[in-house]
Every structure is written in C-alpha cells, then in structure tokens.
Amino acid sequence: MISRTQSVDDVGADILESSHMVSIMLYLYGCGESRKSDIYDAVGRGNRMPDKLDSLRQLGLVDYGGTSDARPTIGLTELGAEVASMLHAIDLAIRNRDTV
Questions:
Q1: CATH of 8-99, one of 3.40.1190.20, 3.40.50.720, 1.10.10.10, 3.40.50.300
Q2: CA distance to 16, 17, 59, 77, 98, per residue, from 12 (Å)
Q3: d(CA 70, CA 5)
Q4: Does pLDDT of 23 surpass 70?
Q5: What global pTM score does this model have?
Q6: How far apart are CA 53 and CA 68, in angstroms?
Q7: Alpha-helical regions (H) of 12-77
C-alpha cells in the first residue's frame, strides 16, 4: 500500500508485493467490473482491503464507477487492464510450466 510518506510517483511494481494485490488485479481481469463485496468474497476480507483498493485507485489501476453511490463498482482502468493482462500471462506461464 502507499504509505503516508510515499508519493504515488515513487511507487512501482513493488506495490503488488502487498498481499492480495495481484489477486485483486487478476479477479478484476477475469470477472470485470465488480462490487467491493464480490471482490472481498473472492479475494479476502481483511480489514486493510479498502486501503488496498484505494492504493490501486491512486495508482490509476482501478477506478470506482457504477450508478449507485451506496454500492459502487470497481473496475480496471486502461492501465490496470494492461498490467492485469501481463499478470495473467505470468500466472498462465507458471500454471502451465509442465506442459511446455
């Protein structure tokens, strides 16, 4: 997550080292725009999940949308989709390592 002493400009791929960040990105890549509760059910319900989503939003990887302020949805931005696509390719390469 982005700490209070960090600037968004100082954060790179290391943000994905925080637990659940890759899982969130892959979930949104596979399922598309989703409600927070759906993401929590699929990825985890830790008390830091809202902070993790906010960090991804600050980096421009996800954006909040939807038509209801009470139940906003979260989806990948163009940059987020590009990053998630690369993560998906890495995931597939690792999963299929025995078939190559």
A1: 1.10.10.10
A2: 8, 10, 9, 16, 31
A3: 31
A4: yes
A5: 0.82
A6: 18
A7: 21-31, 36-43, 49-58
